[in-house]
Amino acid sequence: MATERTLSIIKPDATRRNLTGKINAKFEEAGLRIIAQKRIHLSQAQAGKFYEVHAARPFYGELCEFMASEPVVVQVLEGEGAVAKNREVMGATNPAEAAEGTIRKEFALSIGENSVHGSDSAENAAIEIAFFFSGLELVG
Ligand code: RTP
Ligand code: MG
């Protein structure tokens, strides 16, 4: 499998509870390398733009408000099959359905406040990485 990059976000429920280090350890243990990382506080408009694909979903307003409620850590993860590997380490969207040992099983509070975001395809990863990072900030 080829080396890939994917966009990850440690969400406000996790930064608030000081879980950044524990979550990063999960990524690194799975062989994902953190090649870019920064802590930012999204505006509601920025969160809305990032999650535009979900604009028609009933949870969109709540999701944007949550993502702008407190700082997040945005990061680029690199590794073999990084998109799928990251989704595996994250676990299911709903923590009640997430497998043992996954980030969401261990840390998520609810289906909405579920601690991490990860790109769902290589194509979206490229778009999402470009949303937050310039090429110069990616240090592989
Ligand atoms: P993400 O995009 O954040 O990595 O999560 P995902 O692919 O597992 O889930 P997705 O369907 O893309 O939904 C995006 C985020 O919206 C929130 N959500 N809330 N209240 C609800 O029923 C509900 N459903 C989804 C979650 O924060 C989810 O991660
Ligand atoms: Mg998604």
Automatic annotation (TrEMBL):
Gene3D superfamilies named in the record: Nucleoside diphosphate kinase-like domain
Enzyme kind, highest EC tier: transferase
PROSITE patterns: NDPK_LIKE (PS51374)
Location of the active site: H117 (pros-phosphohistidine intermediate)
Residues that hold ATP according to the record: K11, F59, R87, T93, R104, N114
Entry-linked SMART domains: NDK
Pfam families: NDK
InterPro entries, alphabetized: NDK-like_dom, NDK-like_dom_sf, Nucleoside_diP_kinase
Domain Nucleoside diphosphate kinase-like: 3-140
Main subcellular localisation: cytoplasm
Cellular localization per UniProt: Cytoplasm
EC number: 2.7.4.6
Record's function text: Major role in the synthesis of nucleoside triphosphates other than ATP. The ATP gamma phosphate is transferred to the NDP beta phosphate via a ping-pong mechanism, using a phosphorylated active-site intermediate.
NCBIfam families assigned to the protein according to its UniProt record, in alphabetical order: PRK00668.1
Binding partners and assembly: Homotetramer.
Protein family according to the UniProt entry: Belongs to the NDK family.
Protein name, entry field: Nucleoside diphosphate kinase
Source organism of this protein record: Plastorhodobacter daqingensis
Gene: ndk
